[in-house]
Design brief:
alpha/beta; ten-stranded mixed beta sheet; 8 helices
Length: about 280
C-alpha cells in the first residue's frame, strides 16, 4: 500500500474566483490524508496590504469551513509558478485553481502541472470537493501510466469510492486482433480485446487495493479528450498521466491533458512519470 505522507497538502491562492474552489478541494484532500494544509500566496511584486489581505480572507474562510484541520498560510514575493513548484518538492499533492479566463490556465495551471514535483490538481471554479463520488482514471496503456494509476487507486481507497478506469481507443486496439484490416473488423471483438487489455493493465493494482471497486470503461472514439470529458461527469475527480506527444515535443503535457485542464468541470489531477506517489 501507499504510505501516507505527513507533509501538508499545498494550495495556491491568489484572490481569483478559481481559488475558492481550490481551497475547499485542498482542505478536503488534506483531511482525507490526515495531513495539514498549507495555503500559499505568491505575488511577483510586493504590494502593501494586497496579498496579505487576500490570504487573510482565505485563511479565515477555510478555517471556518474546516475547523478540525490544521492550517498554515504563507505569503511570498516572486513568480507564482516558481513558488508553487518549489513548494511541491515535499507535498503529497499540489492544488491550484483554474480561473475563468483560459489565458490563466496556460500561465499557471498548465505550467504548474507540467513542472511540479508531486501530483497537481487543477480545480475549475464552482467545483465541489465531492469526496463521495467515483475517481475517473484515464489509462493510456503505456509504462507512464503507473504513477497515475497508483494515485487513482490510493485516492479511491481514501474516498471509499469506486474507480472508473477508462481507456479511449480508435481503430484496432494494439495488436490484440492480429492481422486484421483496420477499416473492416468486428467491433465486438475489438471491444472485448480493449477490455481485456485494460483488465490486464489494472490486475496488479486491483490485488493491492481489494476494497476498491473497479469499473472498466473501454471506450471507442477518435477524440479521446472529449470522451474523457463526458466520462468525467460521472466522477468527482479525473486522474491522468502527463504524456507529451513524441520525444521531440516541446509540450510537457499532451494535448488530451491540456484539453482536460482547460475544459473539465471536474478537478483534474496530473501525475507525471517522475512523481513518487
Amino acid at each position: 500500500m501507499v504510505t501516507i505522507a505527513r507533509d501538508p497538502v499545498v494550495v495556491g491562492v491568489d484572490g481569483r474566483e478559481g481559488s475558492l474552489a481550490a481551497a475547499d478541494f485542498a482542505a478536503a484532500e488534506a483531511r482525507l490524508r490526515g495531513v495539514p494544509l498549507l495555503m500559499l500566496s505568491a505575488c511577483p511584486v510586493r504590494r502593501p496590504g494586497g496579498a496579505h489581505t487576500t490570504l487573510t480572507a482565505f485563511l479565515r474562510r477555510v478555517c471556518t469551513a474546516w475547523p478540525e484541520l490544521r492550517i498554515t498560510a504563507r505569503n511570498v514575493t516572486g513568480d507564482p509558478v516558481e513558488a508553487l513548484v518549489a513548494a511541491s518538492r515535499r507535498a503529497p499533492l499540489l492544488v491550484v485553481g483554474r480561473d475563468v479566463g483560459r489565458e490563466h490556465v496556460r500561465s499557471v495551471g498548465q505550467q504548474v502541472a507540467a513542472h511540479a514535483f508531486c501530483p497537481t490538481a487543477v480545480v475549475p471554479p464552482g467545483a465541489s470537493p465531492a469526496t463521495d463520488q467515483p475517481v475517473l482514471l484515464g489509462v493510456a496503456m503505456t509504462p507512464d501510466d503507473e504513477p497515475a494509476t497508483a494515485f487513482a487507486f490510493h485516492e479511491a481507497e481514501l474516498r471509499r469510492a469506486p474507480l472508473l478506469a477508462a481507456h479511449v481507443w480508435s481503430g484496432v486496439p494494439g495488436s490484440a486482433l492480429g492481422r486484421v484490416d483496420p477499416f473492416a473488423y468486428d467491433m465486438r471483438r475489438a471491444q472485448e480485446a480493449a477490455d481485456r487489455m485494460l483488465a490486464e493493465a489494472l490486475a496488479g493494482w486491483a490485488d493491492k487495493y481489494p476494497d476498491v471497486k473497479v469499473e472498466r470503461m473501454p471506450l471507442y472514439d477518435t477524440h479521446a479528450a472529449s470522451t474523457l470529458l463526458d466520462a468525467g461527469q460521472l466522477a468527482g475527480m479525473i486522474v491522468v498521466g502527463a504524456r507529451r506527444h513524441g520525444l521531440r515535443s516541446t509540450q510537457l503535457l499532451g494535448s488530451v491533458t491540456r484539453t482536460l485542464l482547460r475544459d473539465s468541470t471536474r478537478p483534474v489531477v496530473v501525475v507525471r512519470p517522475q512523481h513518487r506517489v
